Amino acid sequence: MNFLKEINLLRDRIIKYRRHFHMYPEVSNKEYETADFIVSELEKMGVKVVKRGTRPQEIVKEIYTNNDKKTITLQGEPLPGVVGLIEGKYSGKTVAIRADMDALAVDEKNNVTYNSKKQGVMHACGHDAHMAMALGVAAYLSKQKDQMKGNVKFIFQPAEEYVGGAVPMIRDGVLENPRVDAIFGLHMDPGYKTGEIGISYGETMASSDRLIIKIKGKSTHGASPHQGIDAIIIAGQALVAMQAVMSRMKSPLESAVLSFGTIHGGEQPNSIAEEVVIRGILRTFKPEVREKAIEDIHKVLKGVTEAFEGSFEFTREKSYDSLCNDKKMVEFLKETAEDIIGEENIKELEKPRTIVEDFAYYLQEVPGAFMFLGTGNEEKDTCHPLHSSQFNIDEDSLEIGVAIMSAVIMKYLN
Fold this sequence. Notes:
- This protein has 414 residues and is α+β, with helices and mostly antiparallel strands.
- It has 2 domains: 3-59 and 77-206 and 322-413, Aminopeptidase, CATH 3.40.630.10; 207-318, Alpha-Beta Plaits (2-Layer Sandwich), CATH 3.30.70.
- It is 32% helix and 30% strand.
- The protein is built from 10 helices and 18 strands.
- A hairpin with a 3-residue loop joins β2 (58-65) and β3 (69-75).
């Protein structure tokens, strides 16, 4: 089948979907109008909506002090989410594709007719395109079900940018009834030209942990620092020591990135600060490296604060696990995509990326592959990075993504 030719007939419809989502973005946990629109469109296509909404996400916090460690689990709010199902005429396997729904708290600076209508909220990561392409695949495959073996699930997932909607959807049975045998996902990527895709065998994206460190001292007059405990001095020593952990207490062949983005402490220039709060993120690939880094950070904080007679509270909010593609499924994706865009337009990542993606959790449950869809086009000014206020896509990439995903699904099932 000439998938590009077939999907081209849906081009205007797919672009219309994308522009609608772009104009009406919703941040993580709040994608209710987005979900309503998706349900309405799936029902118009005759696609069965088998799920709306999902259970709350659990946020796990590990809290370390000088003498103790405890773990607490916090319950969030129930999340929006939609699952559609196309059942083929003949029995067979079930394949799923996933599209994330949330936008970012970014004020858009593009000058286009379909600018965000919500001040301070923007689809700056391409999730509008992900949803539009999933609906495009659904529109195409809904016309093919009389020739299709097996089933296709369409997972429209909330909260990828924040708490992660993948885990609660999995716990709610999104991969069951019928059981999913394979899953595919993609992400827009301005680093590749329109018409290209990026693939990766095995390790593809990092895990992450949010870190909140409170250094506690004792305030006093700045003229008599010996009468207090200077939290700023302790924090400075701790920051240097924690970076030394990354370079000296792990193998240089293992990747780990520790970045601190904020530090706040003290109230007066002539007073010794009683408390400093530091926030950052740890990114790793291997689980053992991840846990060893947390252990070493704890040791450093304990040693430095005790040396200066201070104390600390170190909170680790566990974020996403690392994303690891199934090598056989990546090869299957590559072979299928070659027939559509040509072998020369399939680029293999030179090394894993330190960004994160909760598609990782689906891949822990079933075989699958995650790819990067090129949308870079200098003439159309679509080379701005993800999360930028000027991020935009080359809409020619939409039908390429729909064609590849449709072909992967049909080939896998048939």
